[in-house]
Amino acid sequence: MERKTPLYDCHVECGGKMVPFAGFLLPVQYQTGVIAEHNAVRTKAGLFDVSHMGELLLFGADALDNLQMLLTNDFTNMNDGQCRYTLLCNKSGGIVDDLLVYRMEKNQYLLVINAANVEKDERWIREHIFGDVTLKNLSSELAQVALQGPLSLKILAKLCMEESLPKKYYTFVKDINVGGINALISKTGYTGEDGYELYCQAEDAPNLWNKLLEAGKEDGLIPCGLGARDTLRFEAAMPLYGHEMNDEITPFEADLNFAVKMQKRDFIGKEALQNKGERTRKRVGLKILSRGIAREESVVFFNDTKIGITTSGTHCPFLKTPYAMALLDMEYTKPGTRVQVEVRGRMLDAEVVELPFYKKDERKK
Amino acid sequence: MEFRSDRNYSKSHEWVKEIGTDKVEIGISDFAQDALGDIVFVNLPQAGDEVEVQTPFCDVESVKAVSDVYSPVSGIVCEVNEDLLDNPARINEEPFDAWLIRVEQVTQREALLSAEEYEDFTKKEA
After folding, report:
1. Which domains, from first to last, does chain B contain?
2. pTM to 2 decimals?
3. Closest CA to B79 of B7, B26, B21
4. What is the pLDDT of residues A331-347, one digit of tens each?
5. Does ipTM exceed 0.85?
6. Would an 8 Å CB–CB cutoff place A211 in contact with chain B?
7. Are the beta carbons of A344 and B63 separated by less than 8 Å?
8. In Å, how far are A273, A360, A361 from A365, measured between CA atoms?
9. Which chain B residues are closer than 8 Å to A227 by Cβ?
10. Which pLDDT value is given to residue B126?
């Protein structure tokens, strides 16, 4: 039986089409539809319920040492109010999850993890933590909404002091008063656009949601569902756990090298990653040249040789072109390489292209 | 949601409109387009192709997924709506006018539902 997020009634009221996702009932889209919601985020602003995401608080004198051992990134040079993207690897170097780490204060970190992986991650972390450290699962106490798009700041500033908001990408501020509601706000997101993620107590979520929608109405802010969340992250080539990453894909294969610090003394998975040597396959972008869409798990060919598999694929609503991401054997990963993708018995022509497909700064030029 | 009574419907959510002797027009219902969401591609057959009752003759791609469209009749495709190749969103906007194919020499039809029966059917399915 799926759980409801604290915003369930708000979605139904907004006309959300509710579907089960990662154990929750969430809107896949509203009456506006995926394309309109996607383009609202690219040009104005969109509001997402991401309360299904999990939040784990790790605290204690050995919290930092534990993070260093559990996760692939380096947290020693982090300051209070910073966020960092990282991977959690298994002993074979495969990816257990990808997550954001918020440094709340010295010895206290908030880990924001994928909804589908909450139980798995919590169990994994409990099995591997050591010393003076406590793990607390806050997932059901906290709600999270994402306000994304170029007008996000303008909208948010109507409800709180603009100076109080985080200014730099991947930073956050605690205890901001947003229209009377206490929230933690980070300058983060999963859309490839400027925006914020707001965390509040579950019971405050409907009030926060309605206040944001009301404040943004005249600027074109609309609620957006999971459909647009997926097309936006895909267009910006942001990886999704279960697609571009899983227990058998290494961070290097997923081309997430920036989140892995091999020079760190040790972390779970480091030895396996070292022993594997050079990666033999890598995540690339494919532009589909034929008519059609290559979705996930379509086989990719070079002439008659099978060279890999797609991990996600759809029609990109803002770019108005179908693209896919794929894991391909290294020798075929050079941009410009022409390949074929088998889709429902047909061969679609495609070309390897640089990631991301969409970059917000290029558009502004 | 609209259920036009000038045509009949299949349980796989296509509509069939009679346009002449043994000649029909086929599209997808308002209910189906709504369930699919924004349609971004249509793969159509060609004029001259045979279609067979309850067998896929084309697929439509929405942002979310690909879906087969089943032929409610057997016959020969005499015309395809090529306008949809460039304007697939018409299926969302005007599902009753955005026909997919016209079929002639219809030899077989599945048991089709009236608009009223189809509306009841979709309510049970929802």
Report:
1. 8-125 (2.40.50.100)
2. 0.93
3. B26
4. 999 999 999 999 988 99
5. no
6. no
7. no
8. 40, 9, 7
9. 37, 63-64
10. 65
